[in-house]
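An instance follows:
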Amino acid sequence: MNLHSALPFAPIAAAVLMAMAPAAHAVPVDIPAGPLGQALSLYAARAGVVLSFPSGLTEGLRTAGIKGDFSIHAGFDALLVGSGLIAVSTPEGSFTLRKNAASEKQAQASAPAPAGSADGALPTVTVTATPAVGAETNGTSRYVAKRASSGTKTDTPLIAVPQSISVITRDQIDEQAVTSVREALRYTPGLVSEYRGAGGTRYDTILYRGFGGGINYDYSYLDGMRLLGANYAIPQVDPYHLERVDVLRGPASVLYGQGTPGGMINLVSKMPTPDPLHEVQVQLGTKGWKQLGFDLGGALNADGTLSYRLTGVGHDGDSQVKHQTDRRAALAGGITWQPDADTSLTLLMRYQHDPEGGYYGFLPAVGTVKPLPDGSFIPRNFFDGSPAFDQFRRTQSSIGYQFEKRIDDQWSLHSSLRFLHVGTDYDSVFTSGVNVSNPSNPQLVRRAIFNNASYNAITADNRAQYSFKTGDLSHKLLFGIDYQRLHYNEAQGMGNAPSLSIPNPDYAAAITRPAMSSRSRQELDQIGLYVQDQIQWDRWTWLVGVRQDWAGNDRAERISGTDVKQSDHAFTGRIGLVYQMDSGVAPYVSYSRSFQPVADADAAGRLFKPTTGEQVEVGVKYQPPGSNTLLTAAAYQLTQNNVLTTDPNNTAYSIQTGQVRTRGVELEARASVTRSLDIIASYTHADNVNTRSNTAQDKHPTYVPDQSAGLWGSYTVRDGALAGLGVSAGVRYTGRSWADAGNTMRVPDYTLLDAAVRYDLGVANPALKGTTLALNVTNLTDKTFVSACATATKCFYGAGRTVRATMTYKW
């Protein structure tokens, strides 16, 4: 791998990581006075940490309680004042209680031995302060999450997982005022989330370590189950409905089945809560943007065994491109029944209607990356379609459940299921080339397409967890079965459309709806069995998992009468090792494989072969004890076979080119440097190359920049006349990428600036408690840039300056 181009940025990123290393964070808590054991358990749950101590150690002891902002260690110390006990952190990130040296010496001299014990030792029964099932806590505070189940499907600290994982928290989503999941991932390493620029709002298409791209590779998961879709019928989740976004980089097939080897995202829903929650939000912005949202939750009965969540959002606004509008109305809700701390059943539903999906077109490299013959460029608001013909409508709805049962200290069960229906209606005139034979009047060559599709999908995941010990080894054994089924119907037609003058566009020309060329039915199903064991010995943690998949693909073309069936099976696995030091440093190494049946066909109707991938990753994570900081560095080599790329002869379809290998380095830092300052920093260097291809041997794939970096900082004034004021600023750098498969043309690099200011009105005026005003600006300098190109005729302008003003009221 050529690291020369990375050198100018790597020292900067490394310096940022080191500068944040000693950070410690204050968590706001309010623990009332009372029995010490109960107070400690409540504090551990609030802080998102695991606390264990021998039964009887706190018997008869009380605490005066605490209220205010405390680091985790300081909070324990304050609760334990006068008790003769101290809280000690373990290498795994949990805490345990023990007597301090002075009190233990005094006890040995004067205290009688407890009943039933000859040597004065306390019984070995352990009380653990863990959250009730169905109420996952990931220790999130501001921008830093310390736990997430997405990487292992178990409650495991991120530092103990031998895989690169990022968590985009609710605080980050709110403070950056993002309106799509892809925007929420802007500052995350290893991803290219906005390669389609301003023209990709209707899908959250993402590149993971250089793999993916195109709507057929949208490997998003919602609450641990895949959001199935095909062709143009792909669901999308509004970020207002989410609690956080987990990003797993590298193969995740051992737990989730089919998927691109570059990684996946798991969208985590806002869930019912027994605590009262009320929020209304109004947002206005450029291009006539208007958004209204509400988020409500709380207990439904006196004892809190029934709780609910209801979240709604709607928006309306023009796109950057002329004649295109983005509209949405979405509602999500759930009810949780939790009769005891060991049992939880949650029913979830969603409905979303997108009557208009914004712009989804593209323009040629000539006129965007390179000038037209007269030296000019195509304006970034230029519309290459037809106002009278183009339209996109999507309706999606789902219903499902999540059930969790903790049987005892060893066994727990989890079951989840979701039924999803999606329907789309899509008509478009799009660019297929450029004609510059008349330099004074260059023309866009265009084609027209229509696509009507609908599908029903079922996803289910059932698993059991068994914790036990064999000698000095502690095991967390997970085994499960998951299932996916997609029943898809589609009608499509494609044909020629009139050319469009670039300097003098005339949209009055009638567009003839193409004749139907394909009317198909497709059924995709997949069942997988998986087993995973997390083995801990001293400071070492092994992660070993294996999986067997069976997948079927049945595609019937009703016009031609052909019916093609395909069956595949694969054995995949993952193995990793982590060593956790007292200092918070945790080096790791892992190897993993992926398997991906492709629910699509080429222009001739032939089903694609499955893709397979494998990765080797080494890295180190650093989480200073007692701090709200997580630093990660990773290096990897990743290979995928039977990779899909855009068909140069028919850009509405894809072809398989063979094999792609990528090598890369990723750095990420998330930290609360002080009580007021929070920082996110990231850096990525990637080297992707086609190592086996009929048309692009040893060439670099398009889309993928050679390097990228981001830095976001947020400062909140806590005291003084300006208390309640917050300011944020960010800078994003994206390096050069290739614009064509032959690597003859580069997309230039670009740097963007973001800024935000917010003010909590309740700090200055108690009558306005709960009211916050915020102003966010992205691409502060209104830079015109090309975000990426798929081919020389398919390039995307990035979004210009965008302003959002938000008022949020909570009570």
Summary: The chain has two domains: 26-128, 149-810. The chain is about 5% helix and 50% strand. The mean pLDDT is 88. Residues 519 and 559 are 6 Å apart (CA to CA).
